[in-house]
Amino acid sequence: MAKGLKHRLGLTACVAAALLAGCATIMDGTSQTIFLNVSPVDADCTGWQHGEIVGIYYPTFHTMTVPRSRAELTLLCSAHGYEDALVYLAPAEGKWDVPFSNGIDHLTGARHEFDGTVVIVMDELTKHELD
Prior knowledge:
Elements: H1 2-20, H2 23-28, E1 31-39, E2 44-49, E3 52-56, E4 63-67, E5 73-78, E6 85-89, E7 92-93, H3 103-108, E8 112-113, E9 117-121, H4 127-130
Protein backbone atom coordinates (compact mmCIF):
# COMPACT_ATOMS: atom_id res chain seq x y z
CA MET A 1 0.00 0.00 0.00
CA ALA A 2 2.84 2.42 0.78
CA LYS A 3 4.23 1.81 -2.71
CA GLY A 4 0.89 2.82 -4.30
CA LEU A 5 0.72 5.95 -2.16
CA LYS A 6 4.25 6.97 -3.23
CA HIS A 7 3.28 6.40 -6.85
CA ARG A 8 0.18 8.62 -6.50
CA LEU A 9 2.14 11.34 -4.71
CA GLY A 10 4.80 11.28 -7.42
CA LEU A 11 2.15 11.47 -10.14
CA THR A 12 0.42 14.34 -8.34
CA ALA A 13 3.73 16.22 -8.05
CA CYS A 14 4.40 15.77 -11.78
CA VAL A 15 0.93 17.03 -12.71
CA ALA A 16 1.31 20.04 -10.38
CA ALA A 17 4.70 20.90 -11.91
CA ALA A 18 3.25 20.68 -15.42
CA LEU A 19 0.37 22.96 -14.46
CA LEU A 20 2.70 25.50 -12.87
CA ALA A 21 4.83 25.53 -16.02
CA GLY A 22 2.09 27.52 -17.73
CA CYS A 23 1.41 29.94 -14.88
CA ALA A 24 2.66 33.12 -16.54
CA THR A 25 0.58 32.35 -19.61
CA ILE A 26 -2.48 31.90 -17.43
CA MET A 27 -1.75 34.97 -15.26
CA ASP A 28 -0.73 37.40 -18.01
CA GLY A 29 -2.01 35.87 -21.25
CA THR A 30 -0.02 35.59 -24.44
CA SER A 31 -0.59 39.14 -25.68
CA GLN A 32 0.06 42.61 -24.30
CA THR A 33 -1.57 45.98 -24.93
CA ILE A 34 0.85 48.86 -25.34
CA PHE A 35 -0.32 52.46 -24.94
CA LEU A 36 1.04 54.69 -27.70
CA ASN A 37 1.25 58.46 -27.47
CA VAL A 38 1.73 59.26 -31.18
CA SER A 39 2.06 62.72 -32.69
CA PRO A 40 0.28 63.25 -35.02
CA VAL A 41 -2.55 61.30 -33.44
CA ASP A 42 -3.98 60.12 -36.77
CA ALA A 43 -0.75 58.37 -37.84
CA ASP A 44 -0.90 54.82 -39.16
CA CYS A 45 1.31 52.57 -37.01
CA THR A 46 1.98 48.86 -37.29
CA GLY A 47 3.95 46.48 -35.12
CA TRP A 48 6.31 44.02 -36.81
CA GLN A 49 8.15 40.88 -35.69
CA HIS A 50 10.03 38.47 -37.95
CA GLY A 51 8.85 40.37 -41.04
CA GLU A 52 5.15 40.00 -40.21
CA ILE A 53 2.58 42.49 -38.94
CA VAL A 54 1.67 41.56 -35.36
CA GLY A 55 -0.17 44.70 -34.22
CA ILE A 56 -2.12 47.72 -35.47
CA TYR A 57 -2.38 51.09 -33.72
CA TYR A 58 -5.90 52.20 -32.82
CA PRO A 59 -5.86 56.03 -32.55
CA THR A 60 -9.22 56.12 -30.76
CA PHE A 61 -7.82 54.12 -27.84
CA HIS A 62 -4.11 55.01 -28.28
CA THR A 63 -3.27 51.30 -28.07
CA MET A 64 -1.71 48.41 -29.95
CA THR A 65 -2.06 44.78 -28.86
CA VAL A 66 0.94 42.58 -29.68
CA PRO A 67 1.97 39.04 -28.82
CA ARG A 68 4.35 38.54 -25.91
CA SER A 69 7.61 37.38 -27.36
CA ARG A 70 11.34 37.20 -26.85
CA ALA A 71 11.70 38.88 -30.27
CA GLU A 72 12.23 42.59 -30.75
CA LEU A 73 9.14 44.58 -31.74
CA THR A 74 9.46 47.16 -34.52
CA LEU A 75 6.91 49.97 -34.64
CA LEU A 76 6.54 51.74 -37.99
CA CYS A 77 4.44 54.91 -38.10
CA SER A 78 3.56 57.01 -41.13
CA ALA A 79 1.40 60.08 -41.68
CA HIS A 80 0.91 62.49 -44.58
CA GLY A 81 3.29 65.43 -44.23
CA TYR A 82 5.56 63.65 -41.74
CA GLU A 83 8.70 61.56 -41.93
CA ASP A 84 8.14 57.87 -41.19
CA ALA A 85 9.16 56.90 -37.68
CA LEU A 86 10.76 53.59 -36.70
CA VAL A 87 10.90 52.55 -33.05
CA TYR A 88 12.50 49.33 -31.82
CA LEU A 89 11.32 47.81 -28.55
CA ALA A 90 13.32 45.10 -26.82
CA PRO A 91 11.37 42.77 -24.55
CA ALA A 92 12.19 42.31 -20.89
CA GLU A 93 11.30 39.40 -18.64
CA GLY A 94 8.08 40.07 -16.78
CA LYS A 95 7.73 40.25 -13.04
CA TRP A 96 5.97 36.88 -12.75
CA ASP A 97 8.72 34.32 -12.20
CA VAL A 98 8.54 30.90 -10.57
CA PRO A 99 12.02 29.33 -10.74
CA PHE A 100 12.23 25.91 -12.41
CA SER A 101 8.51 25.84 -13.22
CA ASN A 102 7.96 28.18 -16.14
CA GLY A 103 9.85 26.48 -18.96
CA ILE A 104 6.87 26.63 -21.32
CA ASP A 105 6.46 30.36 -20.78
CA HIS A 106 10.17 30.91 -21.36
CA LEU A 107 10.06 28.99 -24.65
CA THR A 108 6.90 30.72 -25.91
CA GLY A 109 7.98 34.19 -24.75
CA ALA A 110 4.89 34.59 -22.53
CA ARG A 111 7.15 35.73 -19.66
CA HIS A 112 8.45 38.62 -21.74
CA GLU A 113 6.83 42.01 -22.08
CA PHE A 114 7.45 45.39 -23.71
CA ASP A 115 7.30 48.84 -22.14
CA GLY A 116 3.65 49.57 -21.41
CA THR A 117 3.75 53.14 -22.77
CA VAL A 118 5.61 54.40 -25.82
CA VAL A 119 5.89 58.02 -27.02
CA ILE A 120 6.44 58.60 -30.76
CA VAL A 121 6.84 62.16 -32.07
CA MET A 122 7.10 62.27 -35.85
CA ASP A 123 9.04 65.04 -37.63
CA GLU A 124 7.14 67.25 -40.09
CA LEU A 125 8.41 67.32 -43.66
CA THR A 126 9.49 70.68 -44.98
CA LYS A 127 7.70 72.28 -47.94
CA HIS A 128 10.70 71.35 -50.12
CA GLU A 129 10.47 67.69 -49.08
CA LEU A 130 6.73 67.61 -49.84
CA ASP A 131 7.25 68.73 -53.47
